[in-house]
Amino acid sequence: MSRRVLLLEPNYKNKFPPIGLMKLATYFRLRGDDVIFYKGDLKEFVINQITEECVAKLSDLDGSINWKLRSDKIALYIRYRKHEYLKQVGIEDSEIAAILGPWVEYYKKFYHSGEYKKHPRWDWVGVTTLFTFYWDITIETIEFAKLMVKDTKNIMVGGVMASIQPDEIEKATGIRPHIGTLHTPYKDIDKDNPYIIDELPLDYSILDEIDYVYPDSGAYYSYSTRGCIRKCSFCAVWRIEPEYQEYLPLRERIDRTRKLYGEQQNLLLMDNNVLASNRLEDIIEDIKSCGFTKEAKYFEPNWYTIAIRNLRLGINNRAYVRKSFKLLQELNTFKSFNENTRTEIYALREKHGLLHLETCTREALIATYKDFAPYFDVKFKKRLGRLRFVDFNQGVDARLFNRRIVKLLAEIPVRPLRIAFDNIKTEPEYTKAIMMSEKYGMKDFSNYLLYNFTDKPEELYHRMRVNVDLCEKLNVSIYSFPMKYHPITGEHSHDRDYIGKYWNRKYIRAVQAILNATKGKIGRGVSFFEKAFGRNEKEYMELLIMPETFLLFRFFFEHLGYTQEWRKAISELTDEERAELYPIIFKNNFNHIEDLTDNQKYLHILQFYKNYRGDIADSESELYKLKKEFDDSMKNNSYSEYK
Hints:
The chain is an alpha/beta fold. Helix content is about 45%, strand content about 10%. It is built from 29 helices and twelve strands. A four-stranded parallel beta sheet has the order 2-1-3-4, with helices on both faces. Strands 5-6-9 form a three-stranded parallel beta sheet, covered by helices on one side. It has a three-stranded parallel beta sheet with strand order 10-11-12, with helices on one face. Helix 2 packs across helix 3 (about 70-80) and helix 3 runs antiparallel to helix 4. The termini are far apart.
């Protein structure tokens, strides 16, 4: 007997799909179970489920009306209980309205009374977890899972946070999480499980079940190794994957994904230290055999053909109905089609009930495939080939670079090559790795710069400067992404407020304000970098203590002369006065400056730390008018304002 399986990802923002849940989806489908993946508002999930039941009941009682088309109005009434939404449902259109009305009321009450909590629908629920600072939303999702499952023994909580803080999660929810990967046949799910779930291919279809779009989608996700030889104190990898596996074959998994879900453009490998493998030659050959050779191009497949084929095969009907519907919508707005063609497509959709997701059925999609296929053939044949790239997304270890390794990496289209630069002590190895890579033809690099850990603020500047200077010296591109350290254990692990030993709230906010202006990254361009972060460490440290709005609207406040006034006032402080005033500034709380000090000289300086953003946004304020005049005057200027 098949089970109803619900896979949940908490509704936080993240770049990558939940790989663990994608493997579990494959596992449960291999067992013949019905699997649903959800990421989004949990209340909306419940309302949608109850709405589906309500629509099914109304359809059973009166099939002369297409109640599915009225699903959105039914959902609104169930959620808000407003009479205006009930009127829009149009119960009166039915000859048996007197019978149908009480049923709509029943489902409304079923939700608001919490009665649904007494009637869980799911046989097994899995919840993934990510960073520890997503604690609140993750615990909320686990508690929700407890309401959804028939027996709480059939809840699995796994992932990063679950592996790092299993005791804390168990204390908060009563659910003992799974620690680490599903690397051996996991008997707690099924006693007769023959599979190593961690090595199963990913089920890409579940990503089409949700509205959320992962920024880094459109790639093959995989591992060629597991674990790491290092035990960095800021990292969770060695806790989650304690055994280093130096080779996991790629070809079979990539081939299966290609066959079932269509060709993906790039290969995104989540290895945590691939260069530590003694089988790097085998890994590189695997990558090339999967189609990722130098100058290889990707030609987008006909997604509609794949979707309809999978509907015929019964592979996740829910996902492929949604995907097919979305593709039909896009087809109707395809720019290369003239108005007559778009009208033909629209008429076909209307005729077969394909204008609304609620009435879009598997049967209608399969039956009309031959009608829509010629249009999709035209659309997808016009696609030009795009270069394919390999991304070792978690970064590679500069300390392991040598000629053999760089030569191997140069055989595949790595872009960007992410080389870790978390500690200033590794600068010699880091610069050597960049220079060696450039000699072998690699020109695009990226790295994450950990800060707010044991580093000093000056060290972050120095590492950024190293990258900017290397760009100029070698004529390469290096994008740096400063990333604030958050503890993975301890009292600050559940929030984002941790301040490192050598940092303070003002410094942290200043870095974040500058990064807002640079869109979170620092690339090529000495002049841009020096304007953003200063020409030297002295200017950089001044920027860290500068009022935040002066950083956000750099040129505007310089134009007004405010920045110069602040700088002059700061420069006139004695060392003793700085020792008194700076700790006040470091706290970065300027809501009531009159309560911070009685010293008039200090109060004059603290006035500059007022939050001017409200005035800038207020169309009635003088500052708003000045800003508008400034923006108009700068439109044809080569400068770009920090907005």
